[in-house]
Amino acid sequence: MIIFWIFTLFVGSTAFAFALIWLQLGIGWSLAYALFAMIVTRGLLSIVRRWLILRERVTPETDVLTRTVETNRAIFWKRALWIAIVPGLYFGVMNLVFGLTPLDALALLPQLAQSFFTNLLYVLFLILAQFSIFFLPFYIYTRIGKTMINPDDANFGVNMDDVRGQRGAVIEMRRILRLIEHGRLYVKAGGKRERGVLMVGPPGTGKTMLAKAIASTLHVPIYIAAGGSFAGMFLGIDALSVFLMVRAARKKAKTWGGCIVFIDEIDALGQKRSGTGGSGPMMGGGMGGMFGGGQLGLNMLLVLMDGIDNPGMIIRQLRGLVNLTLDGLFLPRVIAFNGTRINLRIPALKAPNYNMLFIGATNRPSVLDEALTRPGRFGRQIVFRLPNREDRKDIAALYFDKKQHDPTLDTADRREEFARITDGYSPADIEQVLSLALLYAFEDGRDSLYWKDIREAMGNVEAGLAIPVEYTERDKIAVARHELGHAIASHFFQKDHSHVRLSIRRRANPQIGEIGGYHKSLPMEEEWLEFRSQLAADIRASLGSLACEHVFYGENTTGVTMDLIQATATASRMVGIVGMGPDRLDPEMSRKAMNIGEQLISVVQVTQGVHEQGTPSGAVLNNPMARRTVAQLLGAAYIDDWRLMYVNKEGIDLAAEALIAQGELVGDEISGLLDSVGLREPMASDPYPEDLPVLPDMQRPAIVSASGSA
């Protein structure tokens, strides 16, 4: 380094003498000339030194700052040399080819520059036009299914108080949103804002409704996107779509101080990756990649959510150019005097801290990629559950207030009844039932809905549309007795249940196809645990139809298929999962129950696995001891049901007549009917069912050896 500076000083003194004596520029201009020569010489020596270092001829600087400064100087002067070559080539070509002096070439320069830039603009315009023709449709395609909403622009008619039945989820979301809007003190105290929140829950529980409420009430912009809108036909469309979405959200965050990105059905974008080929096999090896078969959109989202954020490209380039130029001109980085330090370089830029929150909604969290759900991305999860009874009363109050209805529906007893019989309903189901009920009221010429409209709407939502097909007289009586078998068994054995619906109307169910009727009962109290006696009562409620058919006909119909499946599944669960064991019966009655139950076992669930033990029921039924226990549970339940139906044959026929006349009963109407026909429990003296027919054991005939041989 010292020899470089000695050589530079020698060049400077020579240049000063040359300018002062030969060019006669005066002392001031001679000093400037000498300084320019020294800077150029030192810059060229920096290039030489860098060249020697790269070829390992010279040891590099040990100090990082010194090495950075020397590298910047070499880069600056290398670029300066390339820039200096341009005018040299211009004047050389003009002199050698056209015979112009430097002054003439300089005078011609404006005309040539005008012609050059005119043609350059024309070429750039053609390039831009070609680019737009090809890529503009793709850009428009990436905008489909996405909306940016500024504060006060959205009016979905929903606010945060309308999200009923999810009080804990709403409170937690309010807390997170307050940090987005007014969380600066929290950040100063060392806290970290949430980067992503995942709303998880069954369909219809209020996830999208909460997003609408956020958009309607929030004081920062919200970007709403559908998960399926990121899918594209060509490779890279999903990644481009994600990039443009985050870019737009960052711009809004800079302007408004924050922005929220809501991705509905995020499982369409964030499914698990497998290996290097994305979430599934690609078409023909390469065609799937060409037509968007990878997971580039997910990868882009992962990087943009919690990757390395950089300042803007323009400001980074300007900072680099300024610092590079100052290093190249050999200006010191710091000037210090009298204890004061003045930094002559632009300091390192801080990474931007965008105040953004990503919110995703899904009902399939198990399919999401692990990298997406880790802390720092969508690590915070808010669970939406099906509402309990009190929640359903609150939800019903919201939707009843929005619809014209009979004033009798506002009584406490009627609201309690509605909340009880809608067990398992989501908020969307409740809204659908009331909207459908109002539709039926309008079809009947009324502008307010009544209880009978709600009954009809619930039947259609639960079991499907009624089929306007009449039963034959035989089928009508058989279906009524079948469903009353369920209702009576539930009435006597499920003491903690209350009736919801008893119907013999044929309906088209989208899940299981056409059904002839059904009985539904629900627990009077919402309990978390089930005791053995409750599961045993469930088996008896399932087999009540079979026992009733045997009492009246001596045989059963094909309508008991699902009943046997459910009873077998419950018994298998009792034996093989929760270890509840057989019923406490005397040996003779236990043997009788086991023989009967062996013929009631349904093997439908066994075949649902990949092999005969692929399901819990399959594993239990293929264990001899467990199978006998299941048979005993089913047989004991059947015996109890048969005796109950046998002693109440007359009452069942009376109830069947009333049910056939009504077609469908709801709630307390069912209990009232059963209590009115004089049903009773069997006594010890009442008969027991006979054993079901069994096949005799086939004994292989003994082989008698021949006394002689041929």
Summarize the structure in words.
This protein has 710 residues and is α/β, with parallel strands linked by helices. It has four domains: 2-100, no CATH class; 144-272 and 293-309 and 352-383, Rossmann fold (3-Layer(aba) Sandwich), CATH 3.40.50; 389-463, Helicase, Ruva Protein, domain 3, CATH 1.10.8.60; 465-676, Methane Monooxygenase Hydroxylase, Chain G, domain 1, CATH 1.20.58. It contains 23 helices and 14 strands. It has a six-stranded mixed sheet with strand order 1-3-4-7-2-8, with helices on both faces. α8 links the parallel β3 and β4. The termini are far apart. Residues 276-293 and 706-710 have low confidence and may be disordered.
Q: Per DSSP, what share of the residues sits in E-state strands of 2 or more residues?
A: 5-15%
Number of domains: 4
Rounded mean pLDDT is: 84
- What's the story with the biggest beta sheet? 6 strands, mixed
Number of helices: 23
Query: In whole angstroms, how far apart are the ends?
Result: 119 Å
What is the CATH fold-level name of the largest domain? Methane Monooxygenase Hydroxylase, Chain G, domain 1
Task: Estimate the global geometry from the Cα principal axes.
Answer: elongated
Instruction: Please give the share of residues in helix.
Output: 40-55%
Task: State the fourth-level CATH superfamily of the largest domain.
Answer: Peptidase M41
Strand order of the largest sheet: 1-3-4-7-2-8
Radius of gyration: 42 Å
**By helix and strand content, what is the structural category?**
alpha/beta
In the predicted model, the low-confidence regions spanning at least 5 consecutive residues are 276-293, 706-710
Total number of beta strands:
14
Look at the structure and give the CATH class of the largest domain. Mainly Alpha
